Amino acid sequence: MKSFIAGAVALLASALPALAQTAPAAPADTVAAIRARGQLACGVTPNTIGFASPDSRGVFRGLDADYCRAVAAALLGDPERVRFVPLSAQQRFTALQAGEIDLLVRATTWTLSREAQLGLVFAGVNYYDGNGFMVRRSLGVTSAAQLDGASVCLQAGSTTELNVADYFRANRMRLQPVLFDNIEEIRSAFVAGRCDAYSSDTSTLAAFRAGQGAQAGEYILLPEVISKEPLGPVVRKGDFRWFDIVRWTHFALLTAEEHGITQANVDSFATSTNPDIQRFMGRTGDLGRMLGLENDWAAKVVRSVGNFGEVWDRHVTPLGTQRGINNLWTRGGLQYAPPMR
């Protein structure tokens, strides 16, 4: 019996190193890493007008770019302490998983498989979108139902590729997919007439059209929206302190719009007697300390980039895109923030 026990103990001891190797690693402390380097590394699209696109001085502008700035303002107190990392669709998840970036805000669709398989988690939705189709006006097509047998430019491996295939199959239409690895190749091919239609998120299609200058009128966006594409910021799963900061920064932008707190008037709310606004401004409640931030973190966010509506109007409205379901819940939209208390 003693020899059996001794053997079992020896077997268990020999297995421990292997067990240790297969055990999941503890999540990195992203907040501490960002504070130590004094800068947020934020992954964005290389060039999508309205979301993240470099201006004439090389400074990234857009809805997603301002979300990176808002998070930097919340954590570091300075919206300019951001290093923007332009990433292709193929690079984005690997870069986040490997710790090359702290945050991904790149017009990325929230799906079950991405959360369940990639070790990532979405912290909210900053744009409720859907796949659509764009065609040249000269094609004479006014509905996606007229695209039977059409060639469609698509990004390989994207949610759009699957959505378009499903749509054509469901409507018993023939599809000729023309696949490319990156968005610039798709746009060039579509302009060159290599495909009849270009399919992507409607926001991406609107950004493409806006970038065509005097030729923008040659392209039309068809009315059908064939999928749900909730886009939002993404972080690594398991680092809940960092997740909470990113998520509540999004909610702070919405809450500010609900209360009419803007980049221009935020300081005038410092003496408000409204309990909700007192908590928002950091005068009561210690909400910032609960997140590991300064109590006036939300005010710093609005002071830096404005509220959600201001960010939208600055970057998305010029694309000719109606706010629609991206409006606040009080105006018939889906944007809704939990109470900050």
TrEMBL record:
<feature type="signal peptide">
    <location>
        <begin position="1"/>
        <end position="20"/>
    </location>
</feature>
<feature type="domain" description="Solute-binding protein family 3/N-terminal">
    <location>
        <begin position="39"/>
        <end position="267"/>
    </location>
</feature>
<dbReference type="InterPro" id="IPR001638">
    <property type="entry name" value="Solute-binding_3/MltF_N"/>
</dbReference>
<keyword id="KW-0732">Signal</keyword>
<dbReference type="Pfam" id="PF00497">
    <property type="entry name" value="SBP_bac_3"/>
</dbReference>
<dbReference type="InterPro" id="IPR051455">
    <property type="entry name" value="Bact_solute-bind_prot3"/>
</dbReference>
<comment type="similarity">
    <text>Belongs to the bacterial solute-binding protein 3 family.</text>
</comment>
<dbReference type="GO" id="GO:0006865">
    <property type="term" value="P:amino acid transport"/>
</dbReference>
<protein>
    <submittedName>
        <fullName>General L-amino acid transport system substrate-binding protein</fullName>
    </submittedName>
</protein>
<keyword id="KW-0813">Transport</keyword>
